[in-house]
Design goal:
Number of helices: 9
CATH architecture: 3-Layer(aba) Sandwich
Radius of gyration: 18 Å
CATH class: Alpha Beta
Strand content: 15-25%
Distance between the termini: 40 Å
Strand order of the largest sheet: 6-9-10-3-11-12
CATH superfamily: P-loop containing nucleotide triphosphate hydrolases
Low-confidence stretches: 1-13, 259-264
Structural class: alpha/beta
Order of helices and strands: HEEEHEEHEHEEHHEHEHEEH
Largest sheet: 6 strands, mixed
CATH topology: Rossmann fold
Mean pLDDT: 90
Helix content: 25-40%
Shape: globular
Number of strands: 12
C-alpha cells in the first residue's frame, strides 16, 4: 500500500539524517574516484549535489542506488547501517532514481509508464482500473495539473510533462529518498518552473530529495542544503542561506572558498 504524502509528512522525525554516508571510497582500477565522502540527506529537504564534470557525482549516486558497490565507508539509512549490493537493495529501502534519460516508453501511456515492470494484476490479467486509480492519486497528491489524461501516450508529451511522469513514477512505491539527475536539463523556462515546483513538493511531502544540477539558479530556488564535490572529495555541505552563488561557484571550480560558513 502506498503511503500518502500527508502520511509521509506526519511520520515522526528524530532529527537524524535519512541518509548518512561517512568515509565513502570508490576506485575503478587505478583511478580513485571517491575519496572519503561524507554526506547527509534529511527527510523533508532538498539536498543539491553539485560539482564540475568528473567531480564524482554520477559515481556517488550510482553507489547510493546500488549500481556500484562502495569499496569502503559507512552507509546508514534511516538510522541503521545497511549494505546495498544492487538496485533491488536500494529500492527495498525506498530509494528511487530518476536519470536524465527518464527510461520512458514512448509507445505506452502515462499509466503503463508509471507501472512499467511493476504492473498490477488481478487473476492473471493487468488490473487497468487499479493502476489508473493509483496513477491519478499519485499525480493528484503531487498537485500535478499539467497532464490532461493519464491515458495519453508519452510520445505526445512535452519535456516537462515527461519529467513529471518519471518523477511521479519514482514516488509510487513507498519511496523515502528520490534522486533526480539534472531534471531541468534542456527544458524551457515554463517547464523548468513546473518541474522545480514538483521537486519542492516532494520534499514538502516528507521525502528526502537529492537534486543533481549544474544550474545554480535552480539549486538556489529549491534546495535546503548544498553539497559540493571537487575531484572526488566532498569539499563542503552547507545550508543554502549561508552561502552565495559566487561562493558555490568557487567551491566547484577550486575546491575552497574564503567564506567561514562554507567549510566542509
Amino acid at each position: 500500500m502506498t503511503a500518502t504524502a500527508s502520511e509521509r509528512a506526519a511520520a515522526p522525525s528524530s532529527g537524524e539524517p535519512l541518509l548518512r554516508l561517512r568515509g565513502i571510497q570508490k576506485s575503478f582500477g587505478a583511478v580513485h574516484v571517491l575519496r572519503g565522502i561524507d554526506l547527509d540527506v534529511k527527510a523533508g529537504e532538498v539536498t543539491a549535489l553539485v560539482g564540475d564534470n568528473g567531480a564524482g557525482k554520477s559515481t556517488l549516486i550510482k553507489g547510493i542506488a546500488g549500481i556500484h558497490s562502495f569499496d569502503e565507508g559507512e552507509y546508514v539509512f534511516d538510522g541503521r547501517p545497511v549494505t546495498v549490493h544492487n538496485p533491488k537493495d536500494a529500492s527495498g529501502l525506498g530509494i528511487e532514481v530518476v536519470y536524465q534519460d527518464l527510461a520512458l516508453c514512448d509507445n505506452l501511456d502515462v499509466v503503463h509508464n508509471m507501472f512499467l515492470g511493476r504492473e498490477l494484476r488481478h487473476r492473471g490479467l493487468l488490473d487497468e482500473d487499479a493502476m489508473e486509480k493509483r496513477a491519478r492519486e499519485t499525480l493528484n497528491g503531487l498537485s500535478v495539473r499539467t497532464l490532461q489524461s493519464v491515458r495519453t501516450k508519452v510520445a505526445s508529451l512535452s519535456g516537462g510533462q515527461r519529467q513529471t511522469v518519471a518523477i511521479a513514477r519514482s514516488v509510487l512505491w513507498n519511496s523515502r529518498l528520490v534522486i533526480l539527475d539534472e531534471p531541468t536539463a534542456a527544458l524551457g523556462v515554463a517547464q523548468t518552473e513546473q518541474v522545480l515546483l514538483l521537486v519542492r513538493r516532494l520534499a514538502d511531502s516528507g521525502l528526502g530529495v537529492i537534486l543533481i544540477s549544474h544550474n545554480l539558479n535552480d539549486v538556489f530556488q529549491v534546495a535546503d542544503d548544498i553539497a559540493v564535490l571537487y575531484l572526488g572529495q566532498m569539499v563542503a555541505q552547507v545550508r543554502k542561506d549561508d552561502v552565495t552563488s559566487n561562493q558555490v561557484v568557487q567551491l566547484i571550480t577550486t575546491g575552497s572558498t574564503g567564506a567561514e560558513g562554507a567549510s566542509a
